[in-house]
Design a protein that fits this description.
97 residues, two-stranded antiparallel sheet, single chain
């Protein structure tokens, strides 16, 4: 579940700066400023042998609602549907191996 942490104006400005960078520059910037995102709810996903942390669907929705840009608002119905589908899905039990 989400921590309820919503982006403030500084967060929005930082996101806009990051989106304007080339992908390799964005990765360097994210590593440098990772501490700014410690209060955001995340989950860990296993992709083969790779494990990555991503923000939760609730955090994505909260940020899109807060930003309120037309492209963010347009994405909300699909995000709401995805969240509901995830909540109805039976949890997968994974173990070693």
């Amino acid at each position: 579940m989400s921590t309820g942490v919503l982006p403030d104006q500084h967060d929005v400005e930082l996101a806009e700066i990051l989106l304007g960078l080339k992908p390799e520059e964005r990765l360097r910037a994210l590593r440098r400023y990772a501490h700014l995102f410690e209060d955001v709810a995340t989950i860990e996903l296993a992709l083969g042998e790779l494990s990555v942390r991503v923000i939760t669907i609730d955090e994505v929705i909260a940020s899109k609602e807060k930003l309120g840009r037309p492209k963010d608002t347009a994405a909300l119905p699909a995000l709401y549907a995805t969240r509901e589908a995830l909540r109805r899905r039976k949890p997968r039990i994974t173990g070693p191996g």
